[in-house]
From TrEMBL, chain B:
Listed GO MF terms: oxidoreductase activity
A single Gene Ontology CC term: cytoplasm
SUPFAM superfamilies in UniProt: FAD/NAD(P)-binding domain
Gene3D superfamilies: D-Amino Acid Oxidase, subunit A, domain 2, FAD/NAD(P)-binding domain
Pfam families in the cross-refs: DAO
Annotated protein name in UniProt: FAD dependent oxidoreductase
Domain FAD dependent oxidoreductase: 7-350
Native source organism of the sequence: Aminomonas paucivorans DSM 12260
Keywords: Oxidoreductase
InterPro entries named in the record: FAD-dep_OxRdtase, FAD/NAD-bd_sf
Superkingdom of origin organism: Bacteria
TrEMBL record, chain C:
Organism of derivation: Aminomonas paucivorans DSM 12260
Entry keywords, A to Z: Oxidoreductase
InterPro entries, per database record: 2Fe-2S-bd_N, 2Fe-2S_ferredoxin-like_sf, 2Fe-2S_ferredoxin-type, 2Fe2S_fd_BS
Family matches, as CDD domains: fer2 (cd00207)
Organism classification: Bacteria, Thermotogati, Synergistota, Synergistia, Synergistales
A Pfam match: Fer2_4
GO MF annotations, alphabetized: 2 iron, 2 sulfur cluster binding; oxidoreductase activity
Name of the protein in question: Sarcosine oxidase, alpha subunit
């Protein structure tokens, strides 16, 4: 059995940030990551982040991952990292956590405090043949081409014109893949204008108020019939056949929160945050006194917010152990979060967070 | 105006409650069943779903026989929308001591005398029939090939749905807050903030029967005990029977879809209806079961859960009218209630409609505790 | 091989190339990278056949959360090939239906 001060479950943007922050306060930290390397979704991002200097504006996503990894490395043996390791359970009665390294090795962890930074998982929309090989989540397509240098296919139909759909379409073209079209069920593009403009300039048609009627192919995807849809997402004709070998799903994510349920955290369904998420206070602590939440697992948002939430969680988990933390940390980090969530663009997130942010756990 | 009355109100939507609703509705009785959560959400749906005829008392043997006959055609009888997955791959009780084997032999003799085709097997016969079982140190086993498995959730739900088709009112997410009585006569229940009236109320709420009975001054010696179970990933089924190892109480069985249930009789578990999982259970039961069926090494655990036994002092059910007139108790099945569902439903119907019961249920009376005439069933786990 | 030859931004760092077998055919991939990636690079996208309806399946999420990419690896079924690292000499097979427990001991 392993013991540690702070266990960080998930080594992506939020998890690495939490670990780095907690380690800088002197905590003994253990990161358990189910993938083969750290970095989560950050290592797949080729585009330059925007925002302020604090949010690494102008730096490409995968390089931001390198910056975080360097911070972790600088903490030396205060941070223990296990990749290819999946946490399998949170046992509420004594806070024991079970995990599997690869397929073979089972072990237990006892941690004083836990940060859950387990991110999210891809959604899928229903249509005939949506299970054929070639229907890939957007994250999967990014993993193939940006992490491992494998060509995802020759021609892609992208479903979803939110930021992920637009960014991944551009990344596909950077990798030499033809993007046949983007379909979006809503009457307007969900992502930032700058991303949409980039792919339009390169000749990719974006069909608004369109969705997939059905995919076709014998053993693998060979194409899809798209159709115009009304505001109930029902087909209203204008069908087009689009030959392709990949249908990329960028239709949203769901927070990965099984561990929070197992730990007995107070949970709430919040549509603006894309699913069930734990209630939390401003320190990102859940209703469980030893469990913090950060990143997409706390509500689907984006990488910059995930990193700041990770800092808040790591700082407060360390503080709860009596370790010395930056005096102005909370103020600085919340300023950055409020800035990221400001304006019209941040309305949905603010409304979502407002439903699960509690002032205090006293009397609850 | 909505009349909130019924001939009979049933409290608790587990298998006994739902089977009772079905039997009564079939007999033309106006039934209302209230379940706090969803049908089978209590002990019934969380059960390891082992069906056995291995008992050491005549009444339990007769009831078990009746139930096995029922299971064979139950899916069709209930017009079940989801398959009941009934399988008869057998159930084996494995003895590690002479006194244990002696008792198993007595039990099997009794079963045979009543027509149940169970047998005592030697270690060599067990080894020959199931070469993949490593039962070192056993001195013998009791086995019945007619025993097996049924899907506890789909069976309970099928009973509830058929009851509805036959005219019963079945309300889920409707916890009964308390029973209602006038003097020493039951008058109904309070549920969803409303009063429902009936001359007869049947309490089939497992361990939750105790606090509910208390609301009309009836003391039930039924208490909860948490039990963990786990299930593995599915593998191609090879008809592995249910095996109960009587040294440490570990048991395992293969479900028709190929997954394995692993469990263990553990008196150290907390006495609560609250769900909760134990990592000590996970480690203990996998070690114990793997030593008996090593070919399962490498098969992955998929899920772990818990469910409440409703225990009585002699680990046998209470099937009896309560001291409050019109209140019928059917609970306290102490971990073997699921397989008695069909007979439980029939007995509820017979007692409520004033017919003689098809078996003598005197041993299940409530007063036996006060009379110190406990019902010891030797084949208890 | 369906690898990306030149990327405008990224430089790929691969480990050692090793041999492995897929359904009896010899293939090459990068040691330590997920099996599914090596298969995809070799043009193999169908990883298993579902038990009931015999549908072909490949991967979907590629981060070990969806169970679409299960294959039999070195005799072990239901291996998440999208997060399991490739090793030299690995024996990877299309999984047809559920895994099988070998009842005869070696």
């Amino acid at each position: 059995m392993k013991t540690t001060d702070i266990l960080v479950i998930g080594g992506g943007a939020a998890g690495l940030s939490a670990a780095a922050e907690a380690a800088s306060a002197g905590a003994k930290v253990t990161i358990l990551e189910s993938d083969l390397q750290l970095g989560g979704q950050l290592i797949k991002q080729t585009h330059k982040f925007f925002g302020s200097k604090d949010e690494y504006a102008g730096t490409r996503g995968y390089k931001i991952a390198d910056i975080l990894l360097e911070e972790i490395r600088a903490a030396g043996d205060r941070v223990e990292v296990h990749t290819n390791t999946t946490v399998t359970g949170y046992y509420r009665e004594d806070g024991t956590i079970t995990a599997m390294r690869g397929e073979e090795e089972y072990f237990r962890v006892q941690a004083k405090k836990v940060v859950v930074a387990t991110g999210a998982q891809e959604r899928l929309i229903p249509f005939p043949n949506n299970d054929l090989p070639g229907v890939y989540g957007a994250g999967a397509v990014q993993t193939l081409m940006n992490v491992y240098g494998v060509l995802p296919g020759k021609r892609v139909l992208m479903v979803g014109a939110g930021n992920i759909g637009l960014i991944v379409s551009y990344q596909l073209m950077q990798a030499g893949v033809d993007v046949a079209a983007v379909v979006e069920a809503m009457p307007k593009i969900g992502g930032y204008w700058v991303h949409a403009a980039k792919i339009r300039r390169l000749g990719v048609p974006i069909y608004l108020q369109h969705s997939i009627k059905e995919a076709y192919g014998k053993d693998v995807i060979e194409g899809a019939t798209i159709q115009e849809v009304d505001n109930t997402c029902s087909g209203i004709g204008n069908e087009k056949r689009i030959d392709c070998d990949i249908i990329c799903m960028a239709v949203g994510l769901s927070p990965t929160t099984e561990l929070c349920w197992q730990a007995g955290c107070a949970m709430q369904y919040v549509p603006q945050l894309c699913g069930y998420v734990p209630k939390r206070d401003r320190t990102m602590r859940t209703s469980h006194p030893d469990l913090w939440i950060a990143g997409d697992a706390s509500g689907i948002e984006e990488a910059s917010a995930a990193m700041v939430e990770g800092r808040i969680a790591g700082l407060n988990a360390a503080a709860s152990l009596g370790l010395p933390v930056k005096a102005e940390g909370m103020k600085e980090y919340w300023q950055r979060l409020d800035h990221l969530r400001a304006g019209e663009v941040g309305e949905k997130i603010r409304s979502g967070i407002g439903q699960v942010l509690v002032d205090t756990w006293e009397g609850k | 105006m909505h009349q909130r009355t019924a001939d009979v109100i049933i409290v608790g939507g587990g298998v006994h409650g739902c089977a009772g609703a079905y039997e009564l509705a079939k007999a033309g009785v106006k039934v209302a069943l209230f379940e706090a959560n969803y049908l089978s959400s209590g002990g019934s749906g969380r059960s390891a779903a082992g069906i056995r005829q291995h008992f050491g008392t005549e009444v339990n043997c007769r009831l078990a026989q009746y139930n096995v006959q029922c299971f064979t055609h139950l899916e069709e009888e209930l017009g079940a929308e989801l398959p009941l997955d009934y399988a008869q791959w057998g159930y084996m009780w494995v003895a590690y001591t002479d006194s244990c084997l002696d008792q198993l032999k007595k039990n099997v003799d009794l079963q045979n005398s009543l027509g149940t085709p169970s047998v005592i097997m030697t270690p060599g016969e067990v080894k020959a029939k199931w070469p993949y079982l490593r039962l070192d140190g056993i001195i013998g086993a009791a086995f019945c090939h007619q025993d097996g498995h049924i899907n506890p959730q789909t069976m309970t739900i099928a009973y509830g749905r058929q009851a509805e088709r036959l005219g019963a009112t079945v309300k889920t997410h409707s916890p009964v807050e308390r029973l209602l009585a006038s003097g020493d006569k039951i008058t109904g229940v309070v549920v969803n903030g409303e009063e429902w009236h009936a001359d007869k109320v049947v309490l089939t709420a497992g361990p939750w029967s105790t606090p509910l009975a208390a609301t009309v001054g009836v003391e039930l010696p039924v208490s909860p005990e948490r039990h963990n179970l786990l299930v593995t990933e599915q593998v191609e089924p090879f008809q592995c029977p249910m095996v109960l190892c009587l040294d440490d109480g570990a048991y395992f069985k293969q479900c028709p879809n190929g997954s394995f249930f692993l469990g263990r009789d553990d008196a150290g578990e907390p006495k609560t209806t609250e769900s909760g999982n134990s990592w000590k259970f996970l480690e203990g039961v996998t070690k114990s079961v793997l030593s008996r069926i090593p070919v399962l090494s490498g098969v992955r655990v998929v899920r772990q859960w818990s469910g409440p036994y409703d225990n009585t002092p002699d680990h046998q059910a209470i099937i009896d009218w309560a001291p409050v007139e019109g209140l019928l108790i059917n609970c306290g099945w102490s971990g073997h209630g699921l397989q008695f569902g069909p007979s439980g439903g029939r007995l509820i119907r017979e007692m409520v409609t004033g017919q003689p019961t098809f078996v003598d249920i005197r041993r299940f009376r409530l007063a036996r505790f006060a009379e110190n005439d406990l019902f010891f069933e030797p084949a208890y786990i | 091989m369906r690898m990306i030859d030149e990327h405008p931004i990224l430089e790929y760092r691969h480990g050692q190339r090793v041999k492995f077998s897929f359904d009896g055919r010899e293939m090459e991939g990068y040691e330590g990278e997920p099996i599914a990636m090596a298969l995809h690079a070799n043009g193999v996208r169908i990883y298993r056949e579902t038990p009931e309806m015999k549908r072909p399946r490949g991967f979907f999420c590629a981060i070990g959360k969806c169970s679409s990419c299960f294959m039999v690896v070195d005799g072990v079924p239901n291996v998440r090939t999208c997060v399991t690292p490739l090793t030299a000499g690995m024996n990877v097979q299309t999984q047809r239906g559920k895994g099988t427990v070998a009842l005869e001991e070696a």
